[in-house]
Amino acid sequence: MKILVVEDDDTKRGEISSCLEHAGVPRSCIIPAKDMAEFLGAFDPEVKLCIIDLRLPAFEGATQDNNGVGILQAIDKAGAGHVKLLAISAYPEEFSDIRAQFESRGCLLLDFNHKEVWQGVLKQMVLELQSAEQMDFIIFCALRKERAPYTAMEELGGSAKSNDNLTRLDVTIAGRRGTIVEMPRMGLVDAAIIAGKCIERFRPKIVAMSGICAGFTDRAELGQLLVPELAYEYQSGKWSDEGFSGEPYQVPIGERVRVLARALIEDPGLLPRLEHGLRLKRPMQMSQPKLATFTSGSAVIASDEYMLQVAALHRRVSGLDMEVYAVHRAAHIASCMPDVICAKTVVDLAGGDKDDTLHSYGCVISARFTVEFLESYFQQ
């Protein structure tokens, strides 16, 4: 979400920007423009609110003119009728001649000298935008410790939010705004519900998930980062007197995402970058990250025998968790059709022996990979 502040007076523009920041708008989302030319260069589909002055120069060094009306017309000609508008002027005596034109577009005219009035209106408009805001990306985490590495990344500018029964951390990656959502419970059901709800609300370009998972013996190594290129649910099928007959529905990632992920994974400098500065318990032997087939189910598996049954459903399955398939599926059927990328680190070879030795390491590695992937994704 971008907010464009079109104002040539530095003091006024500073006060308006300060009000926006106090209302919870990140500074990176506030775009200044000092004249008509800068407005035309800055206006794009990501602008959701435009705050304009009535008297503006057409270009740098020009004298002030009634270009506020020109901005109104330019926005309508661009087919951006969804953009909210607010005009704040220090010359209220000019309102009478243009009031009908502005108010027919839903643009209020407010006197800059009545600070309590325009600040109150502006804060309300920001609240309305935030309740229906669009994010460029969403990162899902099933556990608090999986989200924890993001809070330590100061460069993301994290801002904690808790509303609509969601616990989230709003961040910025590669200049794009997104949010990291902590799911209330582990498992396919919560993951499907929360992912579906968030995708339809925020309409992101891409959905991601990071965290830890189990690996299948001889197909994955402890500490190895897996990026699912195909996910399925191992529990779907039919139980009969003869036993269980699986019918695993599969959801792949998009080809653009797969190619980009492969290029990143094959970079020999990736692991050194992901491990830079870490002082955590590391795997005994390092393994190159890889694209993998992934399976998900609602239960934790602590049985070697049952793991063998699950492994038999797909000869290339490498990783197992409780949420990835649900996130893939939610993205696949969403009306906004976002891309999807998940990254999980193997912290145990699922079976009877489990401990949390590699949990912190796995959470950090997968989170750092996710951030680096999103940087590459948006830079392209």
List keywords for this structure.
single chain, 380 residues, alpha/beta, Rossmann fold, 2 domains, 5-stranded parallel β-sheet, 5-stranded mixed beta barrel, 12 helices, 36% helix
In short:
By secondary structure, this protein is α/β, with parallel strands linked by helices. The protein contains twelve helices and 19 strands. It folds into two domains: 2-131, Rossmann fold; 137-379, Rossmann fold.
Care to describe what's here?
With 380 residues, the protein is α/β, with parallel strands linked by helices. It has two domains: 2-131, Response regulator (Rossmann fold, 3-Layer(aba) Sandwich), CATH 3.40.50.2300; 137-379, Nucleoside phosphorylase domain (Rossmann fold, 3-Layer(aba) Sandwich). The protein is 36% helix and 28% strand. The chain is built from twelve helices and 19 strands. It has helices at residues 10-22, 36-42, 67-77, 95-103, 115-131, 144-151, 188-202, 255-265, 270-275, 304-311, 324-333, 359-379, and strands spanning 2-6, 30-33, 47-52, 56-57, 64-65, 84-89, 108-111, 137-141, 159-163, 166-173, 176-182, 206-215, 225-233, 237-240, 243-246, 250-252, 290-296, 317-321, 339-349. The protein has a five-stranded parallel β-sheet with strand order 2-1-3-6-7, sandwiched between helices. Strands 12-18-17-13-19 form a five-stranded mixed barrel, surrounded by four helices. Strand 10 (166-173) and strand 11 form a beta hairpin. It is elongated and about 85 Å long. The two termini are 20 Å apart.
